[in-house]
Design brief:
This protein is α/β, with parallel strands linked by helices. Helices cover about 30% and strands about 20% of the residues. The strands form 2 sheets. A 7-stranded mixed beta sheet has the order 2-3-1-4-7-6-5. Helix 3 crosses helix 8. The structure holds S-adenosylmethionine. The site of S-adenosylmethionine (SAM) has 21 residues, from helix 7.
């Protein structure tokens, strides 16, 4: 078996959204990583094999984890093709397995990311053809092996994507409505809210229920990758199935869902439940009901159709929400009025609660008419968003 860079150093890279770096570092520490260091839109860390499996299975904040195979100076596509041959690709692939490449190139002689990915693909195909006369196929949708090529200032790194694709795809989203939030962003918002499952959490603009589902996963200690069917680390040459099974069994044993008898009775009785939400749109409510079914104990998430204006209000509750933001939903004036009215609702009917509002557009912050205790820019899914905390006295 060859000796790849991650095997020599035990160092990996986790990618995350801008603004979530500190949350990501804390999470890695809790999951047992060491030597945690910031990088560009991500974090470097060290982990032994067992810890690495635990991290990929349990992380809620990171979108990808990468295991580097080689790193080298790379000034031309010819050299990229030649150096990629130093990897014995049969360590990762057979003729019946599929692969895909994501490539990111910046400030380098090779200028085009897509072209760089193509060169790496050809190098893999050429090595297989030379040895076996045939080559494995590319499958960009659901590959067995997802590779990552990163070239910055002519320094290249070829890595295996340990999750086998973006980790924000948890697997519970069967249905969504307009402008769903990325699951990893929702998880970062919940971590920043410091909600620990002890007091009720409510989302009055719940859409397809991403914040509600992530809150339930956190409270019930459901590993973030619980529903994931494929993991990239299964393709590593030193993959250890026994260790992976132990990690999974141990993490799954910690899932704590209430027994059906202890669940609140009645159709979506928000007042008696820990995690609840509402939305004006009937399709959104339908989407939450479909999505929660995928999660163990998901019926504990209560949801109903309601315009927030008609809600009674909330005492001693953590309100976490993502109101419409005008760009993709409705128009700017309507959004400004809605936020002003929501600000009045919070002031008048939610005393003793704390609100965490994620604005998809930073200029909307001042429309609420309340002074935030803090603001945190959080960019994800093409949104230049901001999270604000409001203590409601
Ligand atoms: C940005 S989306 C929320 C997306 C959600 N975080 C998700 O991940 O799917 C805003 C939601 O506010 C809802 N909405 C708009 N006006 C409302 C109102 N007056 N009362 C309650 N919900 C409203 C919309 O139907 C939409 O689903």
């Amino acid at each position: 078996m060859s000796d790849y860079l991650y095997q020599r150093t035990r160092q990996y890279f986790g990618q995350l959204s801008s603004g979530t770096e500190k949350c990501g570092e804390q999470e890695l520490q809790e999951l047992g990583a060491t030597n945690i260091k910031p990088g560009y839109l991500g974090v470097y860390f060290c982990a032994d094999q067992r810890t690495l499996y635990r991290i990929v299975y349990g992380s809620r904040i990171f979108t990808r984890f990468l295991a580097p195979l080689i790193a080298f100076d790379c000034h031309s596509s010819k050299y990229l093709h030649k150096t990629a041959q130093n990897i014995n690709w049969a360590d990762f692939l057979t003729l019946t397995k599929t692969f895909a490449i994501t490539a990111n190139v910046a400030d380098s002689n090779i200028r085009n990311s897509q072209y760089a990915g193509q060169v790496l693909k050809d190098a893999i195909a050429d090595q297989f053809r030379e040895k076996c006369g045939e080559r494995p196929s590319v499958d960009t949708h659901n590959p067995d092996l997802q590779l990552n090529l990163y070239i910055h200032e002519n320094k290249a790194r070829i890595s295996v994507d340990l999750g086998g694709g973006s980790l924000h795809k948890r697997g519970y989203r069967a249905e969504s409505v307009e402008a769903p939030m990325q699951e990893t962003l929702a998880a970062a918002i919940l971590r920043l809210s410091e909600w620990n499952g002890e007091r009720p959490l409510y989302d009055p603009f719940c859409g397809s229920g991403t914040l509600l589902c992530e809150a339930h996963m956190k409270a019930a200690r459901i590993p973030a990758a619980f529903l994931r069917k494929k993991f990239g680390f299964l393709r590593l040459p030193d993959f250890d199935a026994a260790v992976w099974n132990q990690v999974k069994t141990q993490a799954n044993a910690e899932i704590t869902v209430a027994t059906p008898a202890s669940l609140s009775r009645g159709e979506d009785a928000a007042s008696t439940s820990l995690i609840a939400g509402s939305d004006i749109n009937a399709d959104a409510v339908k989407a939450v009901r479909a999505n929660r079914k995928a999660l163990p104990g998901g019926e504990e998430i209560k949801v109903r159709r309601a315009d927030f204006h008609t809600l009674e209000g909330f005492k001693n509750t953590t309100i976490v929400t993502n109101p419409p933001y005008g760009i993709r939903l409705g128009n700017a004036e309507e959004t400004a009025l809605l936020l002003k009215e929501f600000g009045d609702f919070l002031k008048q009917r939610c005393t003793g609660s704390t609100a965490f509002i994620y604005y998809g557009e930073p200029t909307l912050v001042k429309k609420l008419g309340l002074k935030p205790e803090w603001k945190q820019p959080l960019r994800a899914g093409g949104l230049d968003g901001t999270l604000c905390k409001y203590a409601l006295y």
